[in-house]
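Please describe our next protein:
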Amino acid sequence: MNRPLVVGLTGGIASGKSTIGRQLREFGATVIDADEVARDVVKPGQPAYRQIVAAFGPSVLMEQAEQGGEEPALDRKQLAARVFGDDSARRLLNQITHPAIAAESARRMQLAMQSGATVIVYEAALIVENNIYQGLDGLIVVDIPEELQVSRAVSRGGLSETEARARIKSQATRAARREAATWIIDNQKSPEDSRRQLLELWRELAAGRLPPRHPPT
């Protein structure tokens, strides 16, 4: 191939997407994590940081600046509580952050290509919602039933059931993700089972081959 394979990785809240992303890094993929990018573009001093503070006020800031910093960081938990369940607030936050995330992700992807990466994985929660997957070579969806999402978000993520369901509602439906998927990792069984599925997929990607698409759902 003359260029690397560029595939997306997504899944709903508490689906295990981040674990799959870490395993892909372990296997040898270059993973660009939109969550990491999102944290970087809203650090104190960044344009998106100032826009968020102007839009939502000082209540979304930590009480004190980190050691060596002049401005307090965003209180991400407080900001999340403000926007999940409030469509207008979430849209406003997305209007501020999405362009910055897209620009920085594109920059990192270009650097990965220049460095000789053979498989680049763009890991993001909103790949389906924003139709990003249509410009990629394929999309890996980490899939679990909604009720399992809720129970994992509560037991592992520290959310209340109401908070978990609000976040699920704010994302694409499970059916929409499965419809957009090129490949599905069924993550409702054991970690070993999920890793086995992923390793089979990775062997094909690493060889420069696009595995067959998952059967229609």
